[in-house]
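Anyone able to model this chain together with coproporphyrinogen III?
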Amino acid sequence: MPETKKLMRALAGEVLPTPPIWMMRQAGRYLPEYRATRAQAGDFLSLCYNSELAAEVTLQPIRRYGFDAAILFADILLLPQALGADLWFETGEGPRLSTITTEADFAPIKGKDDIHDHLAPVYETVRILARELPKETALIGFAGAPWTVATYMIAGRGTPDQGPAHALRQENEPLFAALIDRLTEATIEYLDQQVQAGAETVKLFDSWAGSLKGDAFETYAVAPAKRIISELKARHPGLPVIAFPREAGDGYVGFARKTGADCVALDNSVTPEWAAAHVQVDGCVQGNLASSHMVTGGQALVDETRRIVEAFSKGPHIFNLGHGITPDADPENVQIMIDTVRSTVPA
Ligand code: CP3
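re: yes, here you go
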């Protein structure tokens, strides 16, 4: 049967009359229905581990807007928790974890095959979604990339410059590399289970890839992504993979070729014209409207949306934001973005 889902067609390299569209953090606090379901669950982590409610919040933006893809509702930090790290969220501040700075901290971290009991509710969420999504909507699974997840496991929180992770890499590279290795192996098993449960594509979020430079970018952003992607494709022939080495700058060039990714997601620090010339030459790209437009709206939102659609119109493209939508976004601006994408006829 020929593939009819727009997102899957773009991932296969097809140039469509208008690009498929979805939005990072499309299930989130800017939606009143999300806030209500989160309150029902109790807190964010309880929501992630409640398969019925996690599926419900995944479906909310699909019902409201008819996006071309749904992304599993979960978090990149559930995997470290499954590996044995403590994890909690401080209200208004973000994630907190136990830290890893010594061999003794790393010793209790579990093996790649010991994560599935903890993550079973996530796989169940995927199974519910595979059953309940409209037939035209693609289902995206995801995980954090090893480097980004490691930055949280080492520092125990989000950091502006990933300083503690860079420090460990320089001061005890064998320990740092062992952590990256464990995460790489566990991420393969985690994503493999999501695909078995019904995810049609998976996305690797390397939100802090931009702070790795030179050889470190090759060793800790490119190489782990390559290993994860090649192993997943060996187990699931034809599985498309989206990679998001956020703020990689020049590192975006050739990233798909080097890692085997089918699509590279772009943040909005690069212009769509530059990315069309230097990144889209290798295949599908995703992006890259600044999420601030979802707050400010107006003519600038329409103009910038059209500019992105037109710049990428000669090759395969998935429309998205450059990063997650923020809680202060106006839900009406999301509708304006979607209407603009679906009505822009490139010159
Ligand atoms: O995109 C989606 O809608 C799917 C679900 C999803 C969430 N987090 C839900 C979430 C995905 C794909 C993520 C990825 C994620 N989580 C990343 C990588 C992408 C990125 O944003 O760079 C990172 C770094 C995290 C870790 C994380 N989770 C942080 C730093 C925070 C706190 C910041 C914030 O926005 O509050 C979270 C919490 C989080 N993850 C929320 C959501 C909807 C907000 C929690 C809430 O409802 O209170």
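The radius of gyration is 19 Å.
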